[in-house]
Every structure is written in C-alpha cells, then in structure tokens.
TrEMBL record, chain A:
The chain crosses the membrane at residues 24-46. It comes from the Archaea. The keyword Transmembrane applies. Keywords: Membrane, Transmembrane, Transmembrane helix. This is Ba3-type terminal oxidase subunit CbaD.
UniProtKB/TrEMBL annotation, chain B:
Pfam families: COX2 (PF00116). The keyword Metal-binding applies. This is Cytochrome c oxidase subunit 2. It comes from Halorubrum xinjiangense. It is found in: Cell envelope. Gene3D superfamilies: Cupredoxins - blue copper proteins.
Amino acid sequence: MGQNETAHAPTDDASGETEEFDPIGTLTLIAIYFVILVLSWVYIYYIEFLGRDLVVVG
Amino acid sequence: MHIHNYEKIWLAASVLLILLLLGSVTYGAVGPGVAMVSDSEQAIDAGGLDDDDRFSEPRVEQVGENEYEAYVVAYQFGFQPDPIVVPENSTVTFYVTSRDVIHGFEVAGTNANTMVVPGEVSKITVETDDRQEYGLICNEYCGAGHHVMEGKVNVVSQAEFDDRNDGGNGE
C-alpha cells in the first residue's frame, strides 16, 4: 500500500491541489496510542500517585 | 511549506499532551499541595546527635492544634523511635537525620519517601488519614544489615496517642 502511494505522490505534487495521500490507518493508530497515553497518565498521576496515603505537602 | 492535514492534527495533539502533563503537575502543586522534600534545614553535626535538642531523644511532639513533629534518627540498622506513633487526621512533619551513613526513609506504599544524609535534616510534611500501620524501610544500601533495616509508622486514634504520651514515660 505504501509503495503505491509514494509512487503516485510525485505526479500529485506536480498537479498540486488534491491530497490523495491519506494514511487514515496511521492516523487511527496514533489516535489510539494517544488515548492510551492520556488514560495511563490520568491513572498514574491522579489515581495512583495522588490517591496514595501520606501525600507530601511540605 | 506544505503540511499535511493529518500532520497538523498530530502536532496539535502532541502540544495538547505536553500541556496536559504540565497542567497535571501544576494542578498537583496548587490543588492537593504536593511539595518536594524541603532543603531549608540547617546542617547539623552527625557525630553530635546526642547533644542535639531535637535528635538526642527521637520522639513525636505536638506543636500545634493537630500538628505534630516527629524527630527520627536513622542508624545502622534501624530507625528511632520505633514505632513512630502519630495520631490520625493530623499534620505530621518528619525531621529525619542519620548518625552514620546515608539511609532512606520510605513509608512503604505511600508517597512519604526521602533520602537521609548524615549531617543533613530531611523534612517532609504529610497528612495522616485513618488509623493504620505502615511499614518503614530504608531504600538506600547502607551496609551488611540493610535488608533488615525497618521500622513502623503507626497512625493511631487520638485517644490512644494521648494515652501513650501520658502513661508511656517508661517506654
């Protein structure tokens, strides 16, 4: 799939305008990674860290 | 320069992520008041702890309404006092120092955790919740007995704490 897209790219660039290169799969993957990252951070910081006893306040 | 639309989305998302991380830490400091181990304490003579007001007699002391200070000495291989007894739902400041080598002071399973350096006083303030017994461990390798160096932090009811302090002189 990737090869085909790169093969087409130069002609598209020459004609300009239209964007045929739409890596929707990559976008979806990165979106999923992003969601995992955000959820992990929320869990690690807000639940595990702040939820523990004896939070150091000074 | 041509930037693909998807690339703009990824850029925006990564900036958003950075802001989220920074925002959380800021929230932690402003909201729940998360702080670092204080470096404001004066250096002391590690060899002269027996003449020190605070550390000649390691203890827990009431310093205000619902405010307590615990003076703790770490040594090879243990902590004084043992157990460290503090009342529930109070603010406790630990002043921890070492009489020999570098130790760690970690109340197991909690965020109370600091290095203990001879000649320095580590100060951390925490808020206790309900009654509970915590383990206290050394997390810096301090010698042959490091693995057996442990103590206890007991969070007890106010009544029990008062009892111990009134009647527990011989302890």
